[in-house]
TrEMBL record:
InterPro entries registered for this protein in UniProt: Restrct_endonuc-II-like, tRNA_endonuc-like_dom_sf, UPF0102_YraN-like
Protein name as annotated: Uncharacterized protein
Pfam families: UPF0102
Organism: bioreactor metagenome
PANTHER family recorded: UPF0102 PROTEIN YRAN
Molecular-function annotations in GO: nucleic acid binding
Amino acid sequence: MAEHNDFGKLAEELAEQFLVEKNYKILAKNFRFQKAEIDIITEFDGKIVVIEVKARGTDIFMEPHEAVTKKKIKSIVSATDEYLKSLNIDKEVRFDIISVLPDETGKLKISHLEDAFEAFDAN
């Protein structure tokens, strides 16, 4: 496995631990629909919270959440619709982004951006 894939997997594991510590209930990880993938699907405060995890070795070029393009949002929304339909879930949905970046000492830090985008942002 490529080093960047290992880092991405580590970032998703750290994000999951972070969410569990904040009392999010993990419903699914790496949910796939067609070519789309949702990193983590949770339930929190009566809502379904879809989490996109972004990791970077540095933020010199852009913040990780800035890498979530309109195309990526569209695929996440499409996969979310499929997930909800397949399990007959009718709850409010929130889309969050968790960024994982090293600080100046190299220690990984987690940043949680709630309501990072809306489903209509995919249009």
